[in-house]
Amino acid sequence: MFFVAYIGDIPIGFISIKDYNVFTSEIYVLGVLRELHGNRLIQMKKINS
Question: pTM (2 decimals)?
Fold first, then answer.
């Protein structure tokens, strides 16, 4: 699964989650714009599964 966080129409971060089975998942990679480190993400939208 891949999610992107937006402020308005501007992508500000992303997360990729790897599912192993119905009980286990792993955050594979995560990124947030440096200017927004420590701030709450406004909106997340699933773009691929």
Answer: 0.66
